[in-house]
Amino acid sequence: MRAKSQELFCEALKYIPGGVNSPVRAFRAVGGQPFFVNRAAGSRIYDVDGNDYIDYVGTWGPAILGHAHPAIIQAVKAAAELGTSFGVPNPLEVKMAKLVCSAVSSVKKVRMCNSGTEACMSAIRLARGFTKRDKIIKFDGCYHGHADSLLVKAGSGALTFGTPDSAGVPAAFTQHTIVLPYNDAEAVRAAFAANPGQIAGIIVEPVPGNAGLYLPRPGYLEALREITQADGALLIFDEVMTGFRLALGGAQTRFGITPDLSCFGKIIGAGLPVGAFGGRAEIMDLLAPLGPVYQAGTLSGNPLAMAAGLAAIEELLRGDAYRKLEESGAALEEGLKDAAKSAGIPAQFNRIGSMFCAYFTSEPVHNLADAMKSNRDRFAKYFHGMLDAGVYLAPSQFEAGFISTAHSPEDINATVRAAAKAMKQL
Ligand code: HOZ
């Protein structure tokens, strides 16, 4: 059925570790082999074998407008005609910085980089430089990219493949990382009480989307804000997934919290490699060349990436994208819940806006320990059932799904029909 993909994968295995350039793509968590895609448009991706799929991975978040949106393609083409990289400032960087600062009110200054990993790594360095403290708090199951000090009880591929604490990271590099359960404000209070004046900051995905998806309990993010403020530590929101997705101003706008620093990626580059971090001006001004915290990048502020991101954000500003995403999300949630119920399968469907995740457990999922109770064999069967019906979900229990504005009501209905069939076979 996917002979060409199989052939490519065999070839890839010879030259690329595991045959993939990012581990979750290898399908190891669900079994089988990845398919190879050579085209994507709107809500669909097309494999080299002539199959198409309704896509809920959306290139892991960036494709909020669907794939190959005409405004983005046009912007990238126009930028490419003028040169692919300059290594000196370009006007699009200024436009992007202004746009980010106006969309996210906590961000007074912003620096562009090349990935979410870079953004989080740099924000942590900046927090340490600003507070002159070493310790940081992260939460288990949260994933902030693959920088050494953050690969502790990490989510996403690290969790999927059972290496949440990666080999190759010296213990000394993570000795200042305190890991706590998510959604437990008392644990945070206790950590601050045990380490007074020593914690540089908390880094948190306000809505964790790298162990599936779960939501902050009412008051939890507020507590993080209050505790950090009282101790002189910084609150860093990793909005690589949620930024420009849950609202133009991200999760922080949706929940009404003002972090000190925020990290972005994904949508802000519209599918080109981009990250960004920003926040209070007096903190950001510690970055080189103004201050002593070093951070740099040859391709940072790349004109193609800026053009793509600007086109995406301008498109989001223009339409009623967030209303549409909410409607599609609600319809999908209702349909999938019904499908599980009529199949008699215990399942939790967590969703916020256009992000979602199904867990196969009868208990609500609020943190990593709850997420781990999901029946992963069942998830793998469900994944393949959906794939066979032409619906592509992330090939791991520990990833979120993403809906785009290109997903039509027909796409959602087709997905619900596929789920109803797949769930009956679990
Ligand atoms: N860590 C990414 C999702 N949370 C996966 C990236 C990829 O495989 O492209």
- Domain count, please report it: 2
Spatial strand order of the main sheet: 4-10-9-8-7-5-6
Find the CATH superfamily of the largest domain: Type I PLP-dependent aspartate aminotransferase-like (Major domain)
- The helix tally amounts to 15
Approximate helicity band: 25-40%
CATH topology value of the largest domain: Aspartate Aminotransferase, domain 2
What is the correct CATH architecture of the largest domain? 3-Layer(aba) Sandwich
What is the CATH C level class of the largest domain, in words? Alpha Beta
State the major sheet.
Answer: 7 strands, mixed
| Overall SS class | alpha/beta
Average of per-residue pLDDT values: 97
Q: Span from first to last CA? A: 22 Å
What ligand species are in this complex? (4S)-4,5-diaminopentanoic acid
Low-confidence stretches: none
Strand content: 5-15%
Shape: globular
Radius of gyration: 21 Å
SS elements, strand count? 14
Counting copies of identical and different chains, the oligomeric state is single chain
SSE arrangement, N to C = HEEEHHEHEHHEHEHEHEEHHHEEHHEEH
